[in-house]
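Contributing new records

If you add data, match the layout below exactly. Sequence lines come first and carry their own label; structure lines follow with theirs. Keep one chain per record. Anything else will be rejected by the validation script.
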Amino acid sequence: MLILASASQSRKKLLENCQIEFIQISSNFDETTIQEKNTFNLALELSFQKANSLSKNIQNLSLPEEFNYESMEILGCDSIFEFKGEAYGKPSNKEEAFIRWKKMSGKFGFLHTGHTLIIGNFDSTSNIFKITEIIKKTVSSRVYFSNLEDWEIKSYVDTNEPLYCAGGFALEGIGGKYIEKIEGCFSNVMGLSLPWLRENLYR
């Protein structure tokens, strides 16, 4: 059984649309405890910590009765947008979102999503989750933005969508019409590389 260690609605929708069976449980890991300047490595470390935090607390979770304890996979993901070497998380306010979009207009950046899959089984006798394998990788996609007028940026920022997204945009939302093209994995930009997940779940 796959557990998505994330509260992300976009990751949830990706898995549902692909008809991958899973349950969603937020890890509640405090991301501020990780200090890493390299965005590529930071995304990977945060994805691991989210999955690992849940694996350590699995015995305290309210899991469905039909849950299969024999084989469990815990998926942790974290996305960070990198623009000109600077990490862009969620903008703190509309002003910051507007300034970022002014910079990004007509240019490109990289969306890094760290993926961690912790595979194991839960021993009900010892009440311990036994890890058998950990698979980790950061998948990066290059995102090209349209040339935008100030009024377009303001109109988008006023929707508040940028305030809830890494990098200040949502490919699957209103911001999709401002993305010229993507080089690399498409679903990765929405927070989860489905080809990566499929390959590793099958393996």
